[in-house]
Amino acid sequence: MLKKSQDQWVAELMGAGFATYTAEASLVDAHTVKFGDLVLEAERILIATGSRTAVPPIDGIEDVPWLDHVSALELDELPGSLLIVGAGAVGLEFGQIFSRFGSKVTIVDAAERIAPLADAEASAMLAASLRREGIEISESVFVKSARRDGDEIVVTIAPRADSDPYELRVDMLLLASGRVPNVEGLNLEAVGVETTRTGITVDERLRTSAAGIWAAGDVNAVAQFTPVAQYQARIAVADMFGEDPVPADYSVLPTSIFTDPELAGVGLTEEKAREEGHDVGVGRNEYVTRFSYIEEKSGLFKVVFDRETRKVLGLHVVSRNGADVVQGLALAIKLGATVEDLAGMHHIYPSFGEGVKAAAERV
């Protein structure tokens, strides 16, 4: 693992002149924080307490062992069977990992499709790919209860439709149905920091409703991604010290699910673009020569654009290295590129990225 340990991060902070404390903290007022018996005062406070795995309301869940994305990487033995609750990025990525190592994997989700925030066509293509690998996926179902039976976990699954609940026996259970902000015990309400169910409320400069307090990262639940947390931290710190930063902008936010193939996207999905009233045009391409090198038969390169202005509204890719393809073209969308701009670009051959040019040429 290349990720730095917690001790390394602390050492770097201390080396840069920070004082660090390991304790549960709570706000006394907008300028005072209490750590046990220690009280610190500051003109400006930044809350960056992050988030943790959400535990869904499953009867009996407190009595059965379950994994999250951290503990799943610490296993000494591979489970023979694994049920994953949640078909977002974490659930899909870990589902494929365990399946390829040999576990029998079942993924369930209450949503009507996997990766519900992604483009629907891209989502369907990824689901089909995972099913071909032998991963079982059940959408529109709820896990109602869980109990232990010897070494197994027995879960009761209830479909949304008028179908009877059924039981599934598995060796292990992995929860991947979202995250919740770490705000308990901070005494936010008493100092005037407004929160919602998803996190601390902030403005475009990461200011909370209490003067002198900012919040960045997963704790505000604007968009729970590592690069977004880094982006927000820079804006918050600049604002805290009077540098008048450019307000936060999430309108062109590239994302990816790191399965194989990857599902990556940036900008509006076809469905969202129609909801916003655009006269939507779509260019599609499902094959590039590079696929033949990895024995892949098809993928998806989809350009969503406005027919009147010709501006590209979104790009959605299901392909090996899809994240890199999307990342490279996110700036084009931000700068207002047209579908003709994409079609007229020179692309490297053979590459995965040339699929975007082909899609733009087919409008």
Describe it for me?
By secondary structure, this protein is α+β, with helices and mostly antiparallel strands. It has three domains: 6-42 and 183-240, FAD/NAD(P)-binding domain (3-Layer(bba) Sandwich); 61-176, FAD/NAD(P)-binding domain; 255-361, Enolase-like, domain 1 (2-Layer Sandwich), CATH 3.30.390. Helix content is 23%, strand content 27%. The longest helix has 15 residues, at 226-240.
What's this entry about, in short?
The chain has 363 residues and is α+β, with helices and mostly antiparallel strands. It has eight helices and 21 strands.
What attributes does this structure have?
single chain, 363 residues, alpha+beta, FAD/NAD(P)-binding domain, Enolase-like, domain 1, 3 domains, four-stranded parallel β-sheet, 8 helices, 21 strands, 23% helix
Low-confidence stretches: none
Provide the number of structural domains: 3
How many separate helices? 8
Task: Give the overall average pLDDT.
Answer: 95
| Rg from alpha-carbon coordinates | 23 Å
Largest sheet: 5 strands, antiparallel
How many beta strands in the DSSP annotation?
21
CATH uppermost class of the largest domain: Alpha Beta
Q: Beta-strand percentage?
A: 25-35%
Could you state the CATH homologous superfamily of the largest domain? FAD/NAD(P)-binding domain
Oligomer: single chain
Topology pattern, helix = H, strand = E: HEEEEEEHEHEEEEEEEEEHEEHEEEHHH
CATH 2nd-level architecture of the largest domain: 3-Layer(bba) Sandwich
Helix and strand composition category: alpha+beta
CATH topology of the largest domain: FAD/NAD(P)-binding domain
Instruction: Give the overall shape, derived from the CA principal axes.
Output: globular
How are the strands of the largest sheet arranged?
Answer: 17-18-21-20-19
DSSP helix fraction = 10-25%
From the N-terminal CA to the C-terminal CA, the straight-line distance is 43 Å
